Amino acid sequence: MTLTSRSLSKGSSKNENPIWITGAEALMDSLRIHGVKVIFGYPGGAILPIYDAVHKAEQDGWLKHYMVRHEQGGSHAADGYARSTGEVGVCFGTSGPGATNLVTGIATAQMDSVPLVVVTGQVPRPAIGTDAFQETDIFGITLPIVKHSWVIRNSSDIAKIVSEAFFIASSGRPGPVLIDIPKDVGQEYFNYQRVLPGEIIPKGFKRNGDINDFDIKKAIKLIEESERPLLYVGGGAISSGAHEEIRTLAKNYQIPVTTTLMGKGAFDEKDNLSVGMLGMHGTAYANFAVTECDLLIAVGARFDDRVTGKLDTFAPNAKVIHIDIDPAEVNKNRRVEVAIVSDVSKAVRKINQKYINHKSDSQTKKWLEKIDFWKNKHPLYDPPKEGEIYPQEVLLKVREFSPEAYVTTDVGQHQMWAAQYLRNSPRKWISSAGLGTMGFGLPAAIGVKAAIPNSDVICIAGDASVLMNIQELGTLSQYGLKVKLIIINNRWQGMVRQWQESFYDERYSSSDMSCGEPDFVKLAESFGVKGYLISDRIQLQNELKNALDYDGPALINILVRRGENCYPMVPPGKSNAQMVGYVNCEE
């Protein structure tokens, strides 16, 4: 008797006697027992056997599949799902162009350490290597941008490989993995036996050893001796859920905290110890603090060039403690005095456990007073309330109207303004940092909304970047996802224009988007999405609130001042202290 995935889905997840099913059904059952409830994808010829099993899984009620309008949208949606939940995101694409369309999303996840399981269809095994219709070597193409990948040659390997895939994607430093499945592997019947999560440890996998107490003691000694310490917190703190531990460490020793673009949300930016984001478009006071600190405690950060500026001028007088789960990052860009290779949360917790309050007076009091002086002298820009709408005003209104929303962004000036002015809780800031992928925000917002349906989800986009994946308005409409898409519209590729103004003598080559720009409101409405146009300050106050409260998906096109630049800015090749355009208030 042949059992279908429907009968499997009602059975036990325990390892049982083999069951005679297809490879596609085995894949879906393996995904189910690994906790998958949501998949994003787009069908095609080579992956049709798997989509037939998807249909059955949806009928059984354990799976929700979101059909995106482009495979890149599917990979970004899975990415948003993973970032907002901490779980592994899953996306499907067919062979050939379907698989290659996933590449940008896979690279985005790899650069930002996001756990994804990407499943691609492939031409049948006998056709591999013959240049068959829609054949590409997606295994070879993606080798540099995945943690691991497989081409399944035997259907009996499916359960084992799925188990390994989830283990590798989510273990250590998270990242994407790829499973390529030939069409005939999905079609053939075999004796399937379940493999439970974690049942198989991949060959060659090494767990991080115990934290060395000697390193913890050295770190504590440096912290206790420091008079100008600074916590530099990156995306690894988000991945490990270390926000409470970091808060405790900062409070215990009264250490100011700066975060990277990936680390936003790891520390409460309303706290007086927060100095906001550092780096190329960081706050002036964060960049001054990192330049003058005598101890830099890097927590889940990788000394990225957009953070450090000219590397040999980054924290030039500081000793460095580096806590990171990936040994490859330690001493890669900056030599350190103490290296703790560990899950960030565990390492910081261990430091906190050994804390003894030696003094009633904070050793860092003068340091904190200096930082407060910088905050007062060099605040973020407060735009004038006259003339055209300033883009910074839009972000301040979003912060006022939707303080607890999950926020995704595209890439450009709007992304940096959002990072500067919004204050986010852990996992509520979702942005492409390492790869800087335009078009990321809208599909990522779809992933967040699919993961957390009752949440408020806002995508901050630019008028240029939103066009990269504007077709995903159709996905919003089809599934009634109440995402709010805010377009900061200056009719430019804003960051490109700013660099052309600053470094290329105002030669604006191919960056003006005003000619050929669509009517975004009509475009949204053609997809069945509510459209709003905001062009003056009164509308910004009233219509933006109405749009954010609207009970459905909405696109809000906000016309802003065209020539506004994003400051502060560290020019390329300069130190963080050599910012341009930062506010300098009178003493």
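(the above was protein one; protein two follows)
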Amino acid sequence: MLKAAVLDGNLPKSPCVWIRLPKIEPDAVVPIRTDVVQQLADTIWRPYRAMVVFAAATGMRSSELRGLTWDRVDFDTSMVSIDRQLIGYSSTEPTWGPPKTASSRRRIHIGSSTMQLLKDLHERTHGPGGIIFHSDGRAITRHTAGEAWRHVREKIKGVGTGWRELRHYHASQLIAGGMSVVAFAHRLGHKDARETLKTYAHLWPSDDTRAAALTDGLVRMNAHELPMDDETSQH
């Protein structure tokens, strides 16, 4: 605004010089518990339950989930290709766009239970454009997905603020399972490991304990040769 005032000749120069805005520190991610996710899957409006389960198992973004189509599923290799996201507002004529970033283009492996869920869904009615997760034949828009989450949030304590909570939950399970940071970054579609650590580094609290356990006791002191107090004082 002040730059515009200078350009318009209302100010000789802008007073905003060498001003450093305070750094905004994002709140640390606190993943929801598995029992809460299960309660969410059991309680949310029925058309959204399969999407909750799939989100918890894959860590996909809401827009990626809602835009996932059957032609992106390889049943032979249990792989899902993620190369676009749902961007439109129409539930009858879905519109797709490029993924969030170039790194968001990826193929991820799907476990047997989750693949069985897809096989069961494949036998039922498909959504417009071959969309997998839909509500009575209509695409799930960002608005309707948010409405469904807000509705269940009133019933379940600690469910979190939105669909991104399931992405954080998935991330926490990967970390607990000891997945490498590089593989982790690929699965979630992060630019690189730095982006992963920037968001989730605090969820690796046991690494120092694990490091101690890996090296503890490998080299030992002979109990019969421990230095005595008087010997220690002589050196």
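Reviewer note on protein two: The radius of gyration is 25 Å.
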